[in-house]
Amino acid sequence: MLWNKIKRLISAESGNAISLFSLSMFVFLGAAGMAIDVGSMLTSKTQLQYAVDAATLAGAKGLIEGQQNAIQQAQSVARRNRYLNQTLILSANEVSFTGGNNISVQVSRTVNLFFLQLVGINNVSISASASAMMGPISGTKGLKPWAVPDEGWDYGDPVVLKRGSINGNGGGSPLPNSWHFPVCFPPVNKGNPPRGGRVYRENIINGSDMVVEVGDILMVEPGNMNGPTNQGVGTIMSMDPYAEWSANGVINSWYPGDSSPRICKISLIDPNQLPGNGRSQVTVTRFGVFFIEGMNGQDLIGRYMHAAAIGEIDNSVSANSDLYAVKLTG
Known about the structure:
This protein has 2 domains: 2-134, no CATH class; 141-328, no CATH class. Strand 13 and strand 14 form a beta hairpin. Strands 3, 4, 5, 8, 15, 16 and 17 form a 7-stranded mixed beta sheet that branches. Strands 6, 7, 9, 12, 13 and 14 form a 6-stranded mixed beta sheet that branches. The protein contains 4 helices and 17 strands. Helix 1 runs antiparallel to helix 2 (67-79) and helix 3 (197-206) runs parallel beside helix 4. The protein is an alpha+beta fold.
């Protein structure tokens, strides 16, 4: 009889242990599942915000061609971004404007859950928003190493960005030295610019990593650099070989918007203050944007256009610009 009581006690203890173990496993799996779902929500929120930021900046760049173009550029960039392996499809009513230079994007999306469905929570809503503005640019990186007299071109005009000879083609009249000599970075008022063909060629390919601002003073190279010019231009042409200029701008590019490596930012200078007569410096008055068509003999030809880039906005700078700055404001 005593033995039977002992067996019943042991059996009861085993049942309690199994129950406690089962309950512990349920709690553990529930906590693990909740952690996975919460992590998924946080990841999707971060990815969605990144996509919205990128779309908003693209839309701000597109404002240079108007609000409809801004919407299209924002939608295009949104489609190239994903959150939890879902493509961000941006509708036009999720894009709004304040004035002519401010754009906002606000989205809300549903994310499906997994483990929390066991307690009746099937999905959760996540949201993201961003605002950006476009305005006159006061300074920028990525400039190509040429300085061109500002002659007031019309959109699409072909412009000689660098002459192969100071006397022009066919021995014509002498041309301004600034069309003959490339320039060095950083500006002399900000540092000591290195010279030479290798640095010049790298600046053609990658653009300068130095910030140049309106009013900065650039040193001109003493040599013509025909060889490095051909090498550098050949490299950027090969990055987007089928791009070409049309009446509607750049077509057949491998790159979206104005991101082709053949679209270049260049310093513009006052045509009444050209180098020469012992002067070897030029002062930046504003910035121009050109599509590089290529070399015509030893002359470098670009098409005059306009574009926007990420940079600092300075409303004290003249709005008469071809290069505008965009930045996130919220």
